[in-house]
């Protein structure tokens, strides 16, 4: 049964735009929000488009929430260049914590049935060699992850006070056509055939293909057992950095060029150059056990990682390499 209307925040983003298109294709009436300063032309054709101010504790959500059955809250503040330790956490909390609280409270007051919150596996932590599960004690390590965890806690309080039906999703890095940031950079580096010093890395990391994430989100819209649950998501397979590079190169039809290098020296060079965060992602482990959502909601990834990388590579070769 389709919801009366679905609100997607962050509808101009990588995940949001694809989610709106998939919901429309599946017959869901969709409302998408875009912020002042962002063109509504970035939103998919066919959805109802509503402009809002920057997200925070005083955002006016009345028009966007009118007649909404399900909210899918994707909009968030992510890492930005120029952040300092002093001001970053304050701004992350304004958008990701206070903004989420205000939206959820308004949604509850206007009779929204279900509120799906896109969190992050970074709430669990980073660099742990043990596979993460929903039962782990949260150990967020940076301002973004801290703000996501605090938002989750706020939502639990709202559940108790209002009965709002909240679902929390914690995905790892998402890849797929139109991907940006670090994964796009990896595609470019592998495509250029640049030798990479990761041959002796022995980590394990989880990822999730965009279409698998969208399918999980839509499952959580209507599944009764998803109510008030937190789920970790992944493609269901872990891979090391060398394996990821090899699989990416294969999808691009490019040769693999990997060589061994001292990992301690690599970390030191990354620290000196201000690239520690990016390099640590390539060296550390971040593996996810997503069996809970599979067991409780009968959800399994529809696409393998090989299929996801193939689709991502096909998009890259057509739209980016040229």
Keyword list:
alpha/beta, 10 strands
Nutshell version of this structure?
With 322 residues, the protein is of the alpha/beta class. The protein is built from eleven helices and ten strands.
Task: Describe this structure as you would to a colleague.
Helices cover 43% and strands 13% of the residues. It has helices at 14-25, 62-65, 85-109, 143-162, 181-192, 210-222, 241-252, 263-272, 276-283, 291-297, 305-319; strands spanning 6-9, 30-35, 48-52, 70-73, 114-118, 165-170, 173-175, 205-209, 230-232, 238-239. The strands form two sheets. It has a seven-stranded parallel sheet, with helices on both faces. Strands 7-8-10 form a three-stranded mixed sheet. The longest helix has 25 residues, at 85-109. It is globular and about 60 Å long. The termini are far apart. The model has no long low-confidence stretch (mean pLDDT 92).
Count of helices? 11
Structural class, from helix and strand content?
alpha/beta
Low-confidence runs of at least 5 consecutive residues: none
Mean pLDDT: 92
Helix content: 40-55%
Write the element-wise H/E pattern from the N-terminal end onward.
EHEEHEHEHEEHEHEEHHHHH
The biggest sheet amounts to: 7 strands, parallel
The coarse overall form would be globular
**How many strand units?**
10
End-to-end CA span: 43 Å
